[in-house]
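[step 3/7] fold_predict: job queued, chain A
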Amino acid sequence: MRMSLEKMVIENFKGTRKLTIDFAEETHIFGMNGTGKTTIPDAFSWVLFNKDSKGNAPGSDNFREKPLDADGHEIHNLDTMVELVCKLDGQRFDLKRRQSENWVKKRGSTNPVFQGNVSTYWINDVETKLTDFKARIAEIAPEEIFRLIGTLAAFNTQDWKKRRAQLLALTGGEVDSRLMAKDEYRPLADECGTRNISIDDLRKVLMDQRKRTGDELKMIPVRIDEAKKALPVFGKDEIDTAEYILKDNAKDIERLDNLIAEEKAFGERQNNGTQIAALEQEAASITRQMMSEFTEKKRGIESRMNYASADAKRYDETIKSCENRKVLLDKQKTTAEARMDSIRTEYKALYETVFGWNTENNVCPTCGQALPEDQVAEKKAEAEKKFMADKIERLNRMKAEGIEKKKEVEQVVEFLKALDMEIEQTKAKLEEAEKELAAAKEEMDAYPASPDFDSNPRLAEIRAEIRKLQEAAEKAIKPDTSGYESRKAALLAQMEEKRAILARRDAGIETEKRIKVLEEQQEAKGAEMAELERMIALAERFVTERCSALEDSINACFPTVRWKLFDIQINGGIADVCNCMIPCESGLVAYSSANTAAQLAADVEIINVLSKYYDVYIPLFIDNAERINVIPETESQKITLSVSTDAELTKREVA
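[step 4/7] structure written:
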């Protein structure tokens, strides 16, 4: 797609009051500083994208589209207009934008107030909404592409990652797939396929794994050393002695437990303990039974209260619902009856209406002369027939509506009767539920807080028997097992001491197992680290070869400019970059370090390549063109702007 500029008309734009310029395929414009050379590309960009040629928006310190006075203030009450007479693929494509000031006189104020600017757009003299205008420009190319192929240095001033992505898109080749097909890179291809990631992401994963594995390898010797220091040290035969004492003491404690049990059994017999325990168990059983019966009866009363309360609540809600429905039905009945009265009045008025004839209809509306009597009679008969037909139709509609409203009133009356009956029945049920609830509450209030255990004769007998047995036991001799208990405590303390020794031994065994596991992990991590180093080295070699292939592929698209897409770091790693290199006598020089003429030539070459890739050619404005002796050829329309001693803008041929 090719866009060319044939003519530009400027009015009140920046410092230019009025200017008309015709353009050829190659146009050279000269003038002193301040004569308005940069205004030309700014006006072109302002129409298309509401920005200047450097991408600055209007109203900022860098770009003011309106003329300014001597104090730097905007001059009001002027329309800013730029018209572009263009061709798009040989067809007419004229663009025009006019910006007017919006002045509004507010209520209570005598002077209007400036409320901002309003822009109007035209395409081929047809007024167009801004959204449609933008959409039509976007069909040619996005704004970003316009800047890249229409503005010098635009490509090299954007972020290097964007430059790199756009350059990689130029090649259109599958470098990765071709390299992955090689046998030496088969491990990388398999790993990328398994993980479903790219080679660059695989590099990041491998580097991260290497770091984590290296950190783990550094910590394993420390953990082994700590574990060895924690191993317990025992004296000769210390473990065997501890095990022997534990077994021997266990036998002595078993013997002492038997002696203590015999003494206590004898004491129980002397103290009537067995009989008392049996009686207490019987008393507990009776108490539980009485408590269960007491609780069950209380729950029955609570259940009656809950059911009665729920019924009362449900009946009350039913009554309220019926009363609400009655209110709505009463309103409906009143509305229907009012409509019936209205229909009767309208029906009577319409029924009594008679046909009337306007004598003005006897005169011809065109010439004003009286119509023949036969025509008048015919028109009058038709009008009367139509009047009667319409009257009958309207009367029938009113009659039908009156019948319908009458039925509606009768239905509402029936519904109201049914609701009244339902309310009466529900009120009776509510009264019964409230009586039941009151009775249950009264019974619950009278219910005791706990069972009357004293009313059970068997419990009284059991308590009396227990008191007699306890009195007899107090007079009996109590057994003395303190000697056995003391000896048992000493044996248990000695066993705890020996168990601590064996616990330290068991902990030492677990520590030795842990040391062995750590040593095995150290060996495995070492092998894993070696494999990671091998894969990383292979990935680095792949990236190096890929970058070289990419650079060759991309550089083949440019006649002289060369691109550096990767950089070898001090640690041997590869970093992605995107540096423009320009040829010079000694070899290559970075774009940022090259002279102005070399940069300009490189910019034109980049624009030529991008225009060909995107198949979009737009006017190329080369400002400050005096910086270079020979401007490179370009397939786009070329408009140069050069500083000269001319007091006004001048077009002339350049040899």
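[step 5/7] annotate
The chain has 14 helices and 14 strands.
The two ends are 29 Å apart (CA to CA).
exit 0
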